[in-house]
Amino acid sequence: MPSDTVRAPRTAGRRRSPTAPPRSFLWTRRIFLTALAGFVLLPVYVMLSSSLKPLEDVSGAFRWLPSELTVRPYLDIWHTVPLARYFTNSLIVAGSATLCSVTVAVFAAYAVSRYQFRGKRIFTVTVLSTQMFPGILFLLPLFLIYVNIGNSTGVALYGSRGGLILTYLTFSLPFSIWMLTGYFASVPRELDEAAYVDGCGPLGALFRVVVPAALPGIIAVAVYAFMTAWGEVLFASVMTNDTTRTLSVGLQGYATQNDVYWNQVMAASLVVSVPVVAGFLLLQRYLVAGLTAGAVK
Amino acid sequence: MRILRAAIVTATVTALAAAASGCGGGTSPGGAGDDSPTTLTYWASNQGPNVEADKKILGPELKKFERQTGIKVKLEVIPWPDLLNRILTATTSGQGPDVLNIGNTWSASLQATGALLPWNKENLDAIGGRDRFLAPALDATGVAGKDPAAIPLYSLAYALYYNKRMFQDAGISKPPATWDELVADGKRISKKGKWGLGAEGGQLTNNIHQAFALGKQHGADFFDRSGRPTFTSDGAVAAVKQYIDFMAKDKIIAPGNAEYGQNQSLRDFATGRTAMVLWQAAATTFAADGMKPDEWGVAPVPVPSGTPGTGRQTNSMLAGINIAVFKNTHNLHGARKFVTFMTSDSEQRLLNKTYGSIPPVTAAQQDPAFNRQDTKVLRETLARSATPLPQIAEESQFETSVGTAVKDLFADAAAGHPVTTASVKARLGKAEQQMTK
Amino acid sequence: MRTVARLRRAGLPYLLLLPALLLELLVHLVPMVIGIVMSFKDLTQLFLGNWGAAPWKGLGNYRVTVDVDAPVGATLLHSFVVTCAFSVLTVGLCWLLGTAAAIFLQENFRGRGLLRAVFLTPYALPIYAAVITWAFMFQRDNGLVNHVLHDQLHLTDGRPFWLLGDNSFLALLVVAVWKTWPFAFLVVMAALQNIPKDLYEAAALDGAGMVRQIRRITLPSLRPINQVLVLVLFLWSFNDFNTPYVLFGKAAPEAADLLSIHIYQSSFVTWNFGTGSAMSVLLLLFLLVVTAGYLLATSRGRKHADA
Predict the structure, then answer these.
(1) What is the Cα–Cα distance from B418 to B410, expressed in whole angstroms?
(2) Closest residue by Cα to residue A267 from A71, A91, A87
(3) Rounded to 5 degrees, what are φ and ψ at B195?
(4) Per-residue pLDDT tens digits for A169-205
(5) Residue C2, pLDDT score
(6) Which residues neighbour C231 within 8 Å (Cβ) at sequence distance 6 or greater?
(7) Which of A164, A228, B180, B192 is the least crowded, having the fewest Cβ atoms under 10 Å away?
């Protein structure tokens, strides 16, 4: 991975161009990044190779290369559990939770980062403290509340995707607010003021200036919110039923009473991860586009 | 100061909100009713190879029931890891299914919550009366002397599965009937990467089942008459030590089995790495793993005397699935009808045949499917020498605490640490103290 | 007219906060109050169906949980110590890996986009799938880890257990770091976007080397984000339930007995929700104190630096 930054011509003596990183840095970088990539990809490789093995192979001693390749697991995964449905559920739940969470957090973070008002500290402390709750503590109470709301208003939160969306969106909310406050704080106030001069109101300034400038941060937060909802197991296992079950719980269906279909677990994991990884790739373009760079300068 | 004020404000606001939303007091347990006579919700446990398979198996039967009674059954098959949590939350909120499957070891615990409909004489008569059922299976439906909290649906017991070929190769002519024979056979087989016996050291329930049956043989119950735990009684300690010693002293269980928790021991058996396993009904798994029915044999689990029976000759816990009616059901009448249907002779025959279990309804046992080499042994064990686990409300704690103790002891044995009567007693003592009363 | 406008302006921040506040109330705060109420009750399965009727136990549940001479308290204390060690190590490693990777990837070079995508994959995999794969790799007899360590590199005498005994802590740590560090990477990477390039250029012209540039410019600019990031990571790993649950099942080995699993066992598995709630409340109090202390310390430090 050679650096392709433009190097200034060498000046006299041993000194290299001041902007080009020294050779030792490049080597450290190369070694570090390779090792890290290896660590990250190791389980992914195991997933991929195991997903192409017949069940007997996966259950036997580990081999780096499959002795026999089969795509059977990729066909079987759809019948062992209703994978397509779980996947759709997960996408809907995680997607909606992310959208709502980020929206709510943007408003709140804007208020905290741009205004002085009474109760600001109380709000931040309270919101932050909720992140410390062990999920176990409020699983049962939350369930009770949802059932009560359902009984008194007819809005079915228990067993529905809505209830899960509501739950997950608040899981990621505290830190989304916190982090966005941090990102917003790094957007210079002069930008807001410039927007006011252009005739924008506070919301105009938020959406025209602050949000675009903090877009990488917002995307980071959105990814966080999405993954929080995407991977949660405990609440999903209790709050969903057959039709609303999400992936994180549904994948456990490959570990049945008498057997673990290792190859199918791996195949299913890879299949459902592809769209998510693709989404990440798409987003990271925005994440690194350096949209702020121009604005801040 | 500011933080303090924040805390006070927060507490007040939340307390008010709690009062306003009316969640402070829990829900009152409603009584059974007949508000919706044409629908039922049924939570089935996962009995088949996977959840989808269960839906395919039960679907046509539920259709049959709908044709007979006009009641539509909404089925949800719930995987085992989720089932108990779902039942607990349903119990707490009062919002659950009408009919549900429970593991029979949970009967007494769930009975204590009061969430299940008691099967008093009237209810029992509605499904044909007590006598239709195997007596020991009906014993595993709640605390003795109380109306059953559930009705047995699928019954199972432990048997000794052995690899005929490996026995032959080691020059063993018949399966062991006593533990001494088992150890001797195991030692003859355990060499060159092959092992005598398989175990699931990381599976708490399995550990409990083995410890319980061995405990019976040592004259130990894990609880005294008043329901107090007696895990450190000489019999209990000896039983657990005997089980661990298969790995620690006799070395007929591979050390790796200490971490098995996903039935890897069955696969080891099917692939010829171990010669024996103690299991409930393993035929379908063996078949799935490519082992032909004539390659394995089945015998009763060994007992000290060689002849299984009651008391000290108990050789299995009584395993099984029960069907229960949720007390808050909106269709009591229909729920009872559904249980009647599920426990009818024909359904019992069909479902148990499909799942490889034994019908707890005695009349349904007269089918060749229950007279194969394996099902015959299971059926006879159920009738003669299986005992239900203690029917106490704290059964779940018992499973966790003692199951974990056995797991830890296996880990010790696998790591080569000495396993002595004292060390077993210490682990069990810790487990006993964890039983909060 | 002017007062209305002023009122509207004064009300705006509250209006902006309202949705967040309502949601937090519904999903976190009210349930927490109920949870605290539960911790004062003798809530066993006998009262599950009507927990309002469960008898009050005063501080009874708390007394049991903090009595370190009795097994319940002793195991809780042990689990607490394990969790502290686990959290500190996880946070440290995740931050280190994440920041280092973000800094190394700051500058453009061939393959950078690919690496970035690679680094984010652990985050994109469903947790269950990722952790079960690690469990698969950590198997004693058939796992990749022992295959490499024992069969190929001959580093160990026998085949060690990774999911049992003391090694399980290490296994848990590796999995947690593997799964969590991309988040630190992502956050730091986003924050690095906001550091103006000319700062580096100016420093470089002044003769500052790579290391000094990082120390003088990069790390100080990361400070506000780091303050949050470290706290998130800490609270996350402290309350982590999914990883040990999938890795070890319902009963984690002693060496890896994290509090969340411990509390889960003490409530859901043994059906004693009173004691479980008491433990949760204690955990919450601890985290409150730690967080408050942390925020106080870091904010003061920041003000100092700003001055």
Answers:
(1) 11
(2) A71
(3) -130, 155
(4) 998 998 899 889 888 888 888 888 888 888 888 888 8
(5) 61
(6) C291, C294, C295
(7) B192
CA B26 to chain centre: 31
C132 touches chain A (CB under 8 A): yes
CB contact under 8 A, C260 and A135: yes
pLDDT for the residue A148: 83
Q: How far apart are CA C275 and CA C40, in angstroms?
A: 9
What whole-number distance in Å separates Cα of residue A241 and Cα of residue B180? 49
User: Is the confidence at residue A83, as pLDDT, over 70?
Assistant: yes
DSSP symbol at B218:
T
Q: Which stretches of chain C score pLDDT less than 70?
A: 1-5, 7, 300-307
Contact C98, C183 (CB under 8 A): yes
Cα of C293 to nearest chain B Cα, Å: 12
pTM for the whole structure: 0.87
B281: nearest Cα among B389, B365, B164, B378: B378
CB-CB under 8 Å, C122 with A37 = no
**What would the mean pLDDT of B305-314 be, rounded to a whole number?**
91
Which residues does chain C have within 8 Å of residue A290's beta carbon, measured at their own beta carbons?
193
Residue written as token pair 């106030």 = A189
3-state secondary structure (DSSP) of residue B33? coil
The amino acid occupying position C163 is L
Give the closest of B13, B29, B415 to C50, CB-based.
B29
Cα–Cα distances in angstroms (integers) from residue A19 to residues A9, A11, A31, C198, C210, in the given order: 11, 12, 21, 11, 9
Residues whose CB is less than 8 angstroms from the CB of residue B366 and which lie 6 or more positions away in sequence, other chains included = none
Strand ranges (E), B249-356: 274-279, 296-299, 316-317, 319-325
3-state secondary structure at position A255: strand
Distance between CA atoms of residues C271 and B68, nearest Å = 39
**pLDDT band for position B50 (cuts 50, 70, 90):** confident
What integer pLDDT is reported at residue A20 of this predicted model? 66
H-type helices in C40-70, by residue range? 60-66
Q: Are B106 and B395 in contact (CB under 8 A)?
A: yes
> Which helix (H) or strand (E) covers residue B196, if one does?
strand B195-198
Cβ-nearest to C291 among A132, A135, A280: A132
Contacts of residue A18 in chain C, CB cutoff 8 Å? 204-205, 207
In Å, how far from its chain's centre is CA C276? 20
pLDDT in tens, C194-249: 777 788 888 888 887 778 888 888 888 888 788 888 988 998 899 888 899 889 88
Mean pLDDT of A128-143: 80
Q: Which residue has the higher pLDDT, C5 or B218?
A: B218
User: Is the Cβ–Cβ distance between B54 and B78 less than 8 Å?
Assistant: no
* Tokens (6 digits) for C194: 């906001």
State how far Cα B135 lies from the chain centre.
17
Burial of A30 (0-12, 13-18, 19+ CB in 10 A): middle
* Residue position matching structure tokens 């008459």: B225
Report helix angle B345-355 to B332-342, nearest 10.
60
* Token couple for C155: 């580093």
- All chains having 3 or more CB pairs closer than 8 angstroms to chain C: A, B
Separation CA C36–CA A138 (nearest Å) = 9
CA torsion, ordered A240, A246, A251, A257, to nearest 10 deg: 10
Task: Please tell me the predicted confidence (pLDDT) of residue C159.
Answer: 87
- H/E element holding B353? helix B345-355
Please list the residues that pair with B160 across neighbouring strands: B278, B299
pLDDT at A122 over 70: yes
List pLDDT tens digits, range B285-303. Answer: 888 888 999 999 999 999 9
Beta strand pairing status for B195-198 and B274-279? parallel
CB B117 within 8 A of CB B332: yes
- Residue C15: both structure tokens together: 């209006």
